[in-house]
Amino acid sequence: MALEDSTTSPPGRLRHRTVSAAVAESLRQRILNGELAPGIQLRQDALAEEFGISRIPIREALLQLEAGGLVKIVPHRGAVVAGLSVEEVEDIFQLRLQLEPPLLALSAPRFTRADYKGLRALTEEYGAALEAGQIERWGELNRRFHLDLLRHAARPRSLSIISGLLQDCDRPTRLQLSASGDVARADREHTQIVALCEADKVGEAAELLHAHIAHAATSLIEIYRRAHAD
């Protein structure tokens, strides 16, 4: 997968910045779709050989990924793909279980027709991405759906916390869906939550949201524990 790094490219620093951005984007997609798993070491010499370029843009690309939280620079190991521990995953989902269902109970009674139209469009887009195997889109669409469910709760601090939690569990959620085969279940439950809200069954919708998050947590923690046991 050689990238242009010849004398025909823009000179000096500009060339390195252009090539490093392309390398960073390639590695970012491989990390986000699970091809490069947490803990994998990203060796500069191996990457330079793979991309057919010098180590300078590789080093710059890894620094970009570190700034984005996808890579950690570890003493004596170099760059490794960042990931969450089992304990961190448990903590994230426990917080989501505590925060999201009550906020849905506050938000759903304030939904407008436009809100329901937007939520249904998101569920359709999410379902299409799941069916097409567009793994890189699952996390962002899932995050948007959950935040839109809670948008009218009038609890900005809580929503800010949830937004960060959803961002943190973006990759783990995609791992859970891919490894467990729960894509159809996730799609179905999203649709059911919206339908319950629209039918003015907000309590049932909040209960289903709790079960939805709890199932994802249980499934993902099991996957993480199996991986650590291997």
From TrEMBL:
SUPFAM superfamilies: GntR ligand-binding domain-like (SSF48008), Winged helix' DNA-binding domain (SSF46785)
Keyword DNA-binding: yes
Family matches, as InterPro entries: GntR_C, TF_FadR/GntR_C, Tscrpt_reg_HTH_GntR, WH-like_DNA-bd_sf, WH_DNA-bd_sf
Originating species: Methylobacterium komagatae
Official protein name in the record: GntR family transcriptional regulator
CDD domains membership: WHTH_GntR
Pfam family, one: FCD
Keywords annotated in UniProt: DNA-binding, Transcription, Transcription regulation
Domain HTH gntR-type: 17-84
Transcription regulation recorded as keyword: yes
